Amino acid sequence: MISFCSLTPEILEELYGRGARQCPSPNDQVSLVFSQAKPFDLVELEQLLASVGWSRRPVRRVRRALENSLLKVGLWRHDPKFPRLVGFARCTGDGVLEATVWDVAVHPLYQGTGLGKQLMNYILEELSKMGIEEVTLFADPGVVDFYLRQGWLLEPSGNRCAFWYSTQ
Ligand SMILES: CC(C)(COP(=O)(O)OP(=O)(O)OC[C@H]1O[C@@H](n2cnc3c(N)ncnc32)[C@H](O)[C@@H]1OP(=O)(O)O)[C@@H](O)C(=O)NCCC(=O)NCCS
Question: What is the reported pLDDT for 106?
Fold first, then answer.
């Protein structure tokens, strides 16, 4: 069951920055917050991404990638002293026409309770506020169904996608 232990607007803004919004929580004892403004501890972010099995990336490059991202959202487990990052996603794009979603992750302890879906809904709402109508992402094979269940479409004919990887 999704419940909602309410935080005041003052606490939300003070701890999580402007525009922070509560995320319905699967557990009465846990309050969760979406924030685009709370700065990330890059070590904590990489720990979250490592917890879902992704290889670590140089912190300096991650910092620049975040700076250059169109949208980055943290899903925080509320604690007045030590909020914990339990989910993350970011988007790149032109801010007008198109965006691409990257690095969608929910900590394994919090998976399977609807948070990934809420994170994706949040992102699409925020992109929609910018007027963006075309959103793409590259899904790992094991999570394609996660996106299909939410209305995403597979690239239709399998012949419109092209990739280039640097060999250096
Ligand atoms: C993919 C991920 C973000 C999903 O987060 P989550 O919080 O566990 O997902 P939810 O609980 O919101 O699941 C929403 C729905 O998708 C389904 N689902 C979740 N993960 C799924 C998967 N890997 N494959 C198929 N369906 C999945 C759930 O069963 C649920 O279905 P329902 O709506 O019928 O009940 C999370 O598992 C994760 O961080 N995985 C590792 C990182 C990763 O692979 N990210 C995606 C990169 S492309």
Answer: 98
**Region of residue 85 (phi > 0: left; psi between -120 and 50: alpha; otherwise: beta):** beta
Q: Which atom of ligand 1 is nearest to the CA of 118?
A: 12
Q: Ligand 1 site: residues with CB under 6 angstroms?
A: 52, 104-106, 111-117, 139-140, 142-143, 145-146, 149
Active site residues: 147
Cα–Cα distance for residue pair 166/69, rounded to 1 Å = 21
Helix, strand, coil in percent for the chain, rounding step 5 = 30, 25, 45
Kindly state the percentage of the chain with pLDDT values over 70: 98
**Tell me, what's the pLDDT at 156?**
75
**Phi, psi of 104, rounded to the nearest 5 degrees:** -75, 120
Please tell me the pTM assigned to this model: 0.94
In the chain, the domains with their CATH numbers are 9-148 (3.40.630.30)
Query: What is the distance between the alpha carbons of residues 90 and 66, in angstroms, rounded to a whole number?
Result: 8
Residue 25 DSSP code: B
Nearest to 65 by CA among 102, 16, 104, 97: 102
